[in-house]
Amino acid sequence: KVATPLGWPFVEQMWTLLFHHCESKEEGTRNMVAECLGKLTLVDPKTLLPILRSNLASTASSIARATVVTAVRFTISDHSQAIDDLLSECIGDFLQTLQDPDLNVRRVALVTFNSAAHNKPSLILGRLDEILPHLYTETKIRKELIHEVEMGPFKHTVDDGLDVRKAAFECMYTLLDTCLERLDIFAFLSHVEGGLRDHYDIKMVTYLMLVRLAQKAPHALFQRLSSVVEPLKATMGAKMKSNAVKQEVEKQDELKRSALRAVLALTSIPDSDKNPQLNEFMVQLRSNTDTLIMLEALKKDGGSSEPMDLS
C-alpha cells in the first residue's frame, strides 16, 4: 500500500492506475506511463522511489521492468533535486537491468544510464568500473540476433540487436564529455574501432566520437591511427549498386561526409603527418575529384560537425 505523500489524497489511486497500464501493448502508452511515474516519484521520493525499486525486483514481466527503468530516467535532471541523494543510493539497482535477459530492458537501461551520464554524472561515476564491462558487451554484433525476413519477392536482413548497440555507443559518446578521466581510454578505443565496421547508424556515432577523441585524447588516438584509418578507407571506397535509389545515394554521401570530418580531425592530431597509413589515405582522397571537393567544403565549414546531444 502506498503512503499518501504531501497530503495528496489521490496519489495512491494515480500510482495504482499507472502501474495497471505499465504493460500496455502500445509503446506510446507505456512511455507516457513511465514519464508519469517518474514525475510522480519526484513529488515524494522518500516514499515512492523505494516502491519503484521493489516493483522492479518483484515483477516477472519484462515490459513492466522496462517501464520502471524508463520511469527512473524521468527523475533525473541537470539541476539539483530532493531525489538526488536517494537516487544515488539506489540507482545501481536500476542499472542492474543492463544484465537483464530481455533485449528491450537492456536498451532502456542504457538510455537511462546515458541520461544520468549526461545530466548528472555524479550518480554513476562511482559505479563505472562495474557498469562499463556490461556497456562494452552491448557494443558487439550478435549474429544470433540477425535474421532474414521475406518481403514479397525480396529478402531483407533484420538485426534485432542494432538498437541496443546504438544505445551503447551513444552512452560511450556521452562518457567522453562527462567521465573521460574515469575511462581506460585504450579499452574504450578498442570498442570504438569495432563500431567503425558496424552498421550505418553505429558508424555515424563513432565518427563523431573520433572527432571528440582527437580533441580530448589526441595522444591515445595517435597510437591507434593505423587501425582507425583502415575502416575509414573502407567507407570512402564503398561503391553504390547501379540500381540504388536516391535515398540510398544520399545516405551514403552523408556517411562519407561524416567519415571525412573524422579524417580531418585525425589530421589535426600532433605528429599525425608521421603516420604512413594516414598520409597514404590523404593522398588517395585528394586524388579523387569528388572527394577533394568534399574535403575542401568541410574545411571551410570548420572541418568537424557541432556536438550532438545523444542523451
List the helices and strands and how they pair.
Layout: H1 11-20, H2 27-41, H3 45-58, H4 62-73, H5 84-95, H6 103-119, H7 128-137, E1 146-151, E2 154-159, H8 162-178, H9 185-195, H10 200-216, H11 218-222, H12 225-237, H13 246-267, H14 276-286, H15 289-300
Antiparallel strand pairs: 1-2
Helix pairs in contact: 1-2, 2-4, 3-4, 3-5, 4-6, 6-8, 8-10, 10-13, 12-13, 12-14, 13-15
**Counting H and I runs of at least 4 residues, what is the number of helices?**
15
- Low-pLDDT stretches: 1-5
SS elements, strand count: 2
Secondary-structure content class: mainly alpha
Helix content: 55-70%
Order of helices and strands: HHHHHHHEEHHHHHHHH
Please, could you describe this protein's structure?
This protein starts with 10 loop residues before the first helix and ends in an 11-residue tail after the last helix. It is mainly α. The longest helix has 22 residues, at 246-267. The protein has helices at residues 11-20, 27-41, 45-58, 62-73, 84-95, 103-119, 128-137, 162-178, 185-195, 200-216, 218-222, 225-237, 246-267, 276-286, 289-300, and strands at 146-151, 154-159. The chain contains 15 helices and two strands. The protein has a two-stranded antiparallel ribbon with strand order 1-2.
